[in-house]
# Entry
Amino acid sequence: MSSPHKFEYASTTSEFCSFFNSPSSRGRVSPMSDELTHRSPWGLTIDTAFEDCDSHDDGCTFSSSSTLCAALGLSTPNSPRSPTSPSFKSFTPDSPRYGLNGFGNGFGNVFGNGTRCSAETHPAGENMPKSSVEHIETDRKGPTVFVWDLDETLIIFQTLLDGRYVELFDGFKDTHKATLLGRRWETLILEVCDDYFFYNHVEEYNHSNVNSLQEYDDGADLSDFKFDDILKPPLNADNLRNIRYLHRYISQLYEQGLDTLLTPEQDKEWHDLYEATDSFTDGWLSAGREKLEELQKVNEQKLQEIKISSDGSVKSSSAPNSYNFLVTSGTLIPSLVKCMLFKLSPYFNASNIYSSREVGKLQCCRWIRDRFSHSEKLPKFCSIGDGPDEREAARVLAWPFVNISIDPDAPGQLPLLSYKTVKVHIKAVYRDNADISKEQQHIRI
# Structure
């Protein structure tokens, strides 16, 4: 394990829209964006060879002479790794993009030189055919499974980097301070990933969940396991087992928390950065934790109500945070680290965090739904986020969707969100027998 060192950050805002370059032409990247994805919500590959970008007059290409792509916050090939850039490699044993006989970039011509991009004018899933809405039972007695988005929903990070957050305040927020905070978070996240989670050894290989490779786990003791060089070609079952070991090890660190890892100096800098960001965003970060706590208490009360069976005996029940899920289009390991650094880990189990980068948010939501398919009391589901992907996934699954907006003039700001508002959305989809009886009685009258 590399020795931890003091966090440093760069204050430069000069970044080029270069993430479509081939892997060989750029430095290491660290995908953590919850905004950019090259998969539709239906799990279909989207052609990333977009038409010319209309959001920048001079165009934005991979060349060193391109216009600064401030709306994306992406890195130049020679700049430090950027958490806003997408992963180049991800594999599963049956992936059509990845052979089992060696290491390649796996994407063919998907990331071709000369492609142009704009996250604003070409969102993931745009112009894709809509999927039909799936059937759902509306009379459900269990707790509510809350499926959250991360960036610009529970936390403010991405828009600090790309300048969108400050733009919404029409000059009332300091642009330089916002960028500086974003850069400090970016560097902090990457250093924690590398120093403690060995992300630099597996960053090109993303999986949707820490349990995605569970079938390769033989339960070996990891006390003396060396993670420094766990991937060696050719890619085979041994490599997949090693990555599964790493995911198990990371899950253990996640449960322990950062307080057991960071030095006193690092711990102070982390907390100072959190407080500075929370203040700059008018309490958005602390509001996220408050909303999670509030909704978790609602589930806790519901679990207490169904804990006593009809014969009066006490039945086993899940912890309230078992009903909190996170689906992010950022890659898995950095997303876990972000949850820890933004102090969200008490509300999300490591196994309840999903990366949708390769499969789309709809598929992740289906996996979450299926985890409760055999529950004695079927739960309700509610999706909360700010993007089109989670909105479309909720539409297809017939889940209520609560929209969050960072716009100070919009009604959907997270600090203003109440359980009463969430309940209205839930009751619009799920009706219990009492509601139906009232309606029938009203009709008879």
Q: What stands out?
A: The longest strand covers residues 380-385. DSSP finds twelve helices and five strands in the chain. Residues 1-128, 310-314, 439-445 have pLDDT under 50 and may be disordered. Strands lie at 144-148, 324-328, 353-355, 380-385, 401-403.
